[in-house]
Write a structure and sequence with these properties.
Bound molecules: 2-acetamido-2-deoxy-beta-D-glucopyranose
Number of strands: 15
InterPro entries: WAK_GUB
Keywords: Signal
Strand content: 15-25%
Distance between the termini: 11 Å
Number of helices: 7
Shape: elongated
Helix content: 10-25%
Order of helices and strands: HEEEEEEEEHHEHHEEEHEEEH
Structural class: alpha+beta
Largest sheet: 6 strands, antiparallel
Membrane topology: Single-pass membrane protein
Strand order of the largest sheet: 3-4-5-6-12-7
GO cellular component, one term: membrane
GO molecular function, one term: polysaccharide binding
Length: 311
């Protein structure tokens, strides 16, 4: 009888060991990549640490004195908001013109995204860029003879209304007729980002720029009510599946040292898929458990064989 009891006891140990092996490691369910900068939450696909988030957004965000900065080839922008539900970021920079102030002298950053990042983010189609005081030699006005300029209204926002802003009065200029100075190129030209793929003030020979976006479906009257800033849409390009599976198994999404390949961080080991499956990048707790389990199993087999022999 004591022997049967011990056998049962061992069986219980065996099954709990098996259960331990099968159960995903929820003990290391800490998202070490999520963080804050001021009152902005930084979460996948963004991150502040290298190796965290999605590789398309690496070396992009920096937290400086609780101010979140977005850094691309054209310069640095302050992040005002990250909207994870609508997958958008709202950016601002001090040298961007608004309704109150026009900033000239080609001081502004404009907006240029590195080609490798373009699949992951772009200004939204309803974001208007208004280019100010561009030279008649500007590429904007070449190849568009007569009235066929690329300038147009974007989501109901354009220069016609922008001219009514106080910023234009402070320039000491008076609007004449429908175009700002009668003949010659317009003093302001509104375009969507896709039309020229990069707001490079130097290349376009413009003195300044402004950017506004519509907070649809609200109808606002006048440029004084527009939201000024750059609205950027981001997307992880179908890599969501990887991260979804990783997070569902208690992991945190990141990428390897090559800055390309995604990895799933599972506490004390990294996986190329998720925390429940093979494809381990480094031996860790899981293989330890496997060894423990096979150790116990071998011991059990030996013990049971012995017991049977004795009976
Ligand atoms: C999770 O993180 C918190 C704070 O960093 C820490 O106190 C806690 O022990 C961690 N939990 C686990 C299971 O690692
Ligand atoms: C974050 O703080 C700023 C002021 O510091 C405030 O204008 C903004 O509304 C806050 N955002 C959120 C989401 O609380
Ligand atoms: C997992 O990958 C991250 C990001 O590359 C790295 O920082 C971390 O050290 C790796 N962890 C292990 C256990 O290899
Ligand atoms: C843009 O909209 C304004 C006012 O809504 C209008 O007067 C103007 O003709 C429009 N411009 C273009 C180029 O469509
Ligand atoms: C902007 O255009 C100028 C002139 O073509 C070029 O030298 C500069 O590298 C461009 N800037 C960026 C960030 O591409």
């Amino acid at each position: 009888m004591p022997k049967l009891f011990t056998t049962l006891h061992h069986l219980i140990i065996l099954s709990s060991a098996a259960a331990y092996l099968i159960t995903p490691s929820t003990s290391s369910n800490n998202n070490t990549c999520r963080s804050y900068c001021g009152n902005i939450t930084i979460d996948y696909p963004f991150a502040l640490q290298y190796g965290c988030g999605h590789p398309g957004f690496r070396d992009l965000l920096f937290c400086i004195n609780n101010v979140l900065m977005f850094h691309i080839t054209s310069g640095s922008y302050r992040v005002l908001q990250i909207d994870y539900a609508y997958q958008s970021l709202t950016l601002h920079e001090p040298h961007m013109s608004t309704c109150e102030t026009l900033v000239l002298g080609t001081k502004g950053n404009g907006f240029i995204i590195e080609p490798w990042r373009a699949p992951y983010m772009n200004p939204t189609p309803d974001n208007v860029f208004m280019l100010i005081s561009c030279s008649p030699r500007s590429p904007l006005f070449q190849g568009f003879p007569g009235k066929h300029l690329p300038c147009r209204n974007v989501s109901g926002m354009g220069c016609e209304e922008y001219y009514n802003c106080p910023g234009w009065e402070s320039m000491g200029r008076k609007r004449m007729g429908s175009s700002f100075f009668g003949s010659g190129p317009p003093e302001c030209c509104a375009v969507p980002y896709e039309a020229i793929k990069g707001i490079n003030l130097t290349k376009l020979e413009c003195e300044g720029y402004s950017s506004a976006y519509s907070v649809a479906p609200l109808k606002v009257d006048g440029a004084g009510d527009w939201s000024y800033g750059i609205r950027v849409r981001y997307s992880v390009q179908g890599s969501d599946e990887f991260c979804g599976a990783c997070e569902a198994t208690g992991g945190t999404c990141g990428y390897g040292f090559d800055g390309i390949r995604q990895v799933c961080m599972c506490g004390n080991f990294n996986s190329t898929s998720n925390c429940d499956s093979v494809g381990l990048l480094s031996s860790g707790a899981r293989s330890m458990r496997l060894k423990m389990f096979s150790g116990i199993f071998t011991y059990m087999l030996a013990w049971m064989t012995l017991t049977v022999n004795w009976i």
